[in-house]
Give the backbone structure.
Amino acid sequence: MSIKQYPVHGAGLGLRRAISDSLADPMPVQIDFMEVAPENWIGVGGAYGKQFRKFTERYPFMLHGLSLSIGGPIPLDDGFLQKLKRFMKEHNIRAYSEHLSYCSDDGHLYDLMPIPFTEEAVHYVADRIKRVQDILEQQIIMENVSYYAAPGKQMEEIEFLNAVLEEADCGLLLDVNNIYVNSINHKYDAEEFLNAIPADRIKYIHVAGHYNEAEDLIVDTHGANVIDPVWQLLDKTYAQFGVIPTLLERDFNLPPVNELLAEVETIKSIQSKWQTTQESKSGNG
């Protein structure tokens, strides 16, 4: 698999305003790329705007949207997409990703709601993704999401995901934590799910922490450290697909920056192991 398929490389960290001052001086060498939600930064000026410019001049950046509502019933927000397009050019953003879900109807629902796993929904969502790609004039990246119910389900999650990726001809943001969370909540084999993903669609990876509500219910919170089974699944992902750029998400309950950087270093150490393995195989070939 060619490294050219990826818009960034190495290990990344989601930039949040609460930690921006701590990351600004000095900017950590452990981080290879960053990611932000565009809704939180478009139109921001003043000190935060200047600081953001310094980050985008130092690191490659990805955008991970919150409000597109790609599976929602209301029309796409063309005005937002035009602002997004300008913002990406202004800051030389590498790519834009969003959640394969919806978050609005008559108003904002303030949560990521599951799209029904149906053939009709595949066509509907794929058409909307293609429209976004036409407006932005580039391929976008959709993330497999955590979900807690499957209303109207007619196909399995992996079938739905792959059908959307194929019909829309878009990329995949592979969230390893979401695979783990869903595998517990919906009682499926995480590695089987992983093995069924088309390698050529993957553009980068997310890892994050979650909350154990009960023995058979995990809530995807991005508010805790990554646990060992998720690190192990990331390791298996690299074993299956090779080393892929991977970003640590942490949205709240933020620890000191050195603890976040330690988790970024964990990503880098797993990547290094598989890079060494691949180089060794190439050398013996």
